[in-house]
Each structure stands twice: as C-alpha cells, then as structure tokens.
Design goal:
Layout: H1 34-40, H2 46-80
C-alpha cells in the first residue's frame, strides 16, 4: 500500500527492478493485482488506506475513460469508414 508521500512519487517499475527501503519507513514491498490491493485496504493504517483507495479510484476513472475513447473511436470509424 502507498504511504501519503508515496503517491507523489508513484512510478511504474520494470519487472526486473526490486525497490529497496532506505529510510526504514516501509516494512516490505509487494507486487499485487488491483483486486488484491483492494482486498487488503481494510488491513492497513488509515492514511495509507486512504491514499491507496484514491489511487484505485483514479485508475478506475482512467480505465473507464480509455474504454469510452475506444468505443468512440470504433463508432467514428464505423460512421466515417
């Protein structure tokens, strides 16, 4: 889960990169799916849970918009061939 400061530093890491804690603020790093992340929300401290929930909401909004763009693009292609 993300800490409050983590959201500003959010980066997608390549699969071969393992993050390392340098300031002892993080107990461990895990690579989890969106579903597993959502399921773990109840078990984290409130600030990390809030930040992670906001990130998940933003990701869902993005996925929704990408879906709309895809539908609109398909519609325009069919309309104007």
């Amino acid at each position: 889960m993300l800490g409050c400061a983590g959201l500003a530093q959010l980066t997608v890491l390549p699969a071969n990169v393992t993050p390392h804690n340098t300031d002892d603020e993080v107990a461990a790093f895990y690579c989890v799916s969106i579903g597993e992340c959502t399921a773990r929300l109840a078990g984290v401290i409130w600030d990390a849970g809030l930040v992670t929930a906001r990130l998940l909401a933003r990701l869902l909004d993005l996925l929704f918009l990408l879906g709309l763009c895809n539908i609109f693009g398909n519609f325009m292609s069919e309309l104007f061939g």
